[in-house]
Each structure stands twice: as structure tokens, then as C-alpha cells.
Design brief:
Elements (H helix, E strand, L loop, with lengths): L4 H5 L23 E4 L3 H16 L6 E4 L4 H8 L1 H6 L6 E3 L14 H7 L6 E4 L6 H10 L3 E5 L6 H14 L3 E4 L6 H11 L5 E12 L7 H4 L7 H17 L3 E12 L5 E12 L4 E10 L7 E10 L4 E7 L7 E2 L12 E2 L7 E3 L7 E3 L1 H19 L5 H18 L5 H4 L1 H13 L6 E4 L5 E4 L5
Parallel strand pairs: 1-2, 1-4, 2-3, 4-5, 5-6, 7-10
Antiparallel strand pairs: 7-11, 8-9, 8-17, 9-10, 11-12, 13-14, 15-16, 17-18
Helix pairs in contact: 2-11, 6-7, 8-10, 10-14, 11-12
The structure holds nicotinamide-adenine-dinucleotide.
Length: 451
Amino acid sequence: MSVPIFLRISGPDFHGLKEGRGRMGKAPEKPVVTIVGGGMITQVQILPSIYQLQRLGTVGDINVTALNAAPLRVLDEDETLRRAFPGQKFAAHPDFREADPKAQFPELYKEVIERMPPRSIVFVAVPDQLHYPVVKFALEHDQHVATVKPLVLKYEQAVEIERIAYERGLFVGVEYHKRFDDRSLMARMAYRDGRFGEFKLGNARLLECWYYRHSNFQNWMTVENSDAFAYIGCHYIDLVHFITGLLPTAVSVYGIEEKYPNGKKGFFWTDGRVIWENGACLNVQNGLGYPDDAPGGNDQGMVLYGRGEDLGTLIIHSDQYRGVKHSYVKKGGDPGDTIYAEPNPDYFKLVNAGGKGLTAVGYGYRSIAAIISAACRIEKETAMLSGAKALAARRKLIKEIDGEGIIATPANSSYNELVMEAGRKSILAGGREVVIEYGDKPGVSFRKHRD
Ligand SMILES: NC(=O)c1ccc[n+]([C@@H]2O[C@H](COP(=O)([O-])OP(=O)(O)OC[C@H]3O[C@@H](n4cnc5c(N)ncnc54)[C@H](O)[C@@H]3O)[C@@H](O)[C@H]2O)c1
């Protein structure tokens, strides 16, 4: 369907975009943020975090684009968001008030990005297999990028993104929010101070609720695109590296295939084994199978055993049950809501902490704030420079953030893409072990065995 572009992205909902094609010459004082993808994660974590940063004066206008109008209407009408951020709005592309509800706009994000002032921020929140083209398009149009995990599905794409971003002095941050859970930061510091010795054997699990099968997942988390290991296993694999600094060197994943309600097939249950460069082993179980009637939002946790000189060491993270038990007068209206609940106070909550509306708290917010602040810092600290000097200064800051290793970036976390490639190769081959090679030409291949 053809709707004149100005109907969709100008007028009262101009929201920091330039009318007509082409971009403004100078980065604005407060960056415009365009979120590409208006689904579940945008609703529960990204948009409220960006609203909070807008309230704090860190970012300016906000745009959200989606494949079609429906999810944008849901975001606009979300009662919790309205209560939390009264008077704050995003511009919807397509505009759900005028767009044909059945029409799809797969390329509209490009038009929106083309109209953003340079060196603003694009937040990528589309299905996994679309991250690569959207991230690349944003960089090629001089935008800093924040993206939900995984950055991309192929190692070579991560390297290409790292190169383009560095050439242009743009920041790319990958949103692995478990890193910003204080327990992860505590474990990382103690591990790196030598207090846990050397990691040897561990297990991690993350099972999302059963009802996820009925959501939009059934349209994209299908056997040919993704699986439970790729979708959620990456969190704990990233975390084990984040804590220990070890690199994964081999992966095998067994997947159990089932049908979604729409008839498409997905690997709903996965059991993965990750071997690390020191020979340590992590078993990772994932799935869309946590009972809707169970009291948490999911089931998750991690146990890492290690050894010191002459004793064992231990890190146990209970990441589902965090010491809070509630029993309500009746259950809420969302899928997975239960009368008796064990809510997670640490991930992301909107609480009344005084002041206007509600305040976003938790590691989900802190993680987004860290990425957005890094992009803003690069702009702020180089604002007085121009040309080659500005570029050199931006690159120096990018290298500094890469080197810290706290925010995941293409340069410091592309082992995740190698694990992703290895996991996909293994699961599609019934669980064969796939080896990760580093060095000059990193890549993955089946482990060769002698008879
Ligand atoms: N814990 C985490 O870090 C976490 C949790 C959930 C999701 N995610 C990631 O976030 C991403 C999205 O997940 P979700 O749960 O929100 O999915 P979802 O299916 O609910 O939403 C996807 C959104 O992308 C939009 N979209 C699809 N194609 C588009 C296009 N061409 N242009 C613009 N928008 C388009 C859809 O309209 C939809 O709004 C995935 O990559 C997922 O892995 C991460």
C-alpha cells in the first residue's frame, strides 16, 4: 500500500525527524532515539527505559517503527506506560491512526532513519534474523546503535559491523542486561580478583513461559531461524565469559522439535554443552516450557563450580526466586499472571519513588541507560572537535569502552556470534559437537573424530 511519507512521519508527530529526504548536518544536543521494532521487549523494557532517559534529559524525541500498525497502537494505549510517563509520547511509524491495519511496512524503518539527525541513536528490537540489515543501515546513515541481543547471527557480520562503526566513529552496544545485575558485577570482580580460583563445571537454565508459543514468536522463532538455545541460552554463556573472561571453544546442542499453535515448527526445548578454553564445561538448558501457572516470570539460574589451590569454589545465582512472595486477591490480566507470584524485583520495574509518574528501576533499565549514555558521552566529549580530530577522539573512546568489557560491543563480545553459529550448526545436525577456532580467521566446524 502506498501512503505519502509525510502523512506518516511528519506533521504533529515530527519527533526530531527532518522533513523530506536527507539529514541535518549537526548532531542535536539531545539525541533523537528511533526504536525499530515495537514488540514485547520494546513494551516491557526498552520504551519505558527510553522514556525515563527522556525525562532525565538524556535523550530527545522518540520514534518507534514496526512492521505494521497493531503493535504501535498497543504501545500507545499501554496503561502502565501512560501512568508511568504522563505527557510523554513517541511518534509511531506507520501512524496507527491512519495506516491500513492489514498493511505491512518492512522498509519504513529506512525512511525514518534517513530523516534522523546524524549521530543520533537507533535501538534495534526486531526479530534476531533482522538485526544485521537494520544495524548496518543505521550505521551507514551515521547513527549510533543499541541493539537487543544477539547482535547478529553470524560472526562475519559482527566483524563487519565492528569495522563500519569504528571507521565512522559510531558506537554499537549490545543489550545483555544480565551483565548489569549487581550479582553479576560482584561475581565478575571477585573472579577477576582471584577469589573463585578457576571455573571448572557449571550449569545454567533459562526457561520462558509456555504461553510464549502463542505469541509472535511462532512467526519467527522457527527451526530454520532460531531455537531456544540461540534465543535465550546466549544470556548465560555471555555471563560466564563476562565473569570469568574465558572463551567458549566447543558447542553441542540437542533440540526437541514441536509445533507452534500456527503449525510452524520450533526447537522448544534445548540442552546445550559449552566447553571453554581451559577445558571447563557448562551445561545450558533452555525452553519455552515454564508452566504458566508457576509463580515466576520464567525459571532461571546458574551454578558455577571452580577450584582454588586446594579447595572448591562456588557461585550460585538463584535468578528466578529472589526472595519475594506475593499472593493477590485475584490474578492480573496478562498471560502468565498468577494469584501467588514470585516477582523479580531486580530486572525491570516501574515503581512510585516520588516525583512525576513512576520510575524505571532494575538492571534492565541500567543496561539500557549505560549503552545510551556511552553513545551520548562519545558525542559530548568530541562536540568541540571536527574532522579527523573528532573521528580520532571518538575512536579512542570506542576502544576504551571495548576494553572495559562491561558493555557488550561487537569488538569485545563476538564470541557470542561464534557460539550462535556453532549452536545452529549443531542443533540442525542432531547435536554433533562443533568446534570454535579463534586466531586469524575465526570460524566453526564439526569436531573431527578418528575411528
Ligand atoms: N532478554 C532479552 O535480552 C530479550 C528478551 C526478549 C526479546 N529479545 C530480543 O528482542 C528482539 C525482539 O523480540 P520481541 O520479543 O520484542 O519480539 P516480537 O515478535 O514481540 O516483536 C518484534 C517486533 O519487530 C517488528 N518488526 C518486524 N519486522 C520489522 C521491520 N521490517 N521493520 C520494523 N519493525 C519490524 C514487529 O512489528 C514487532 O513489533 C529479538 O531479537 C529478541 O531476541 C531480547
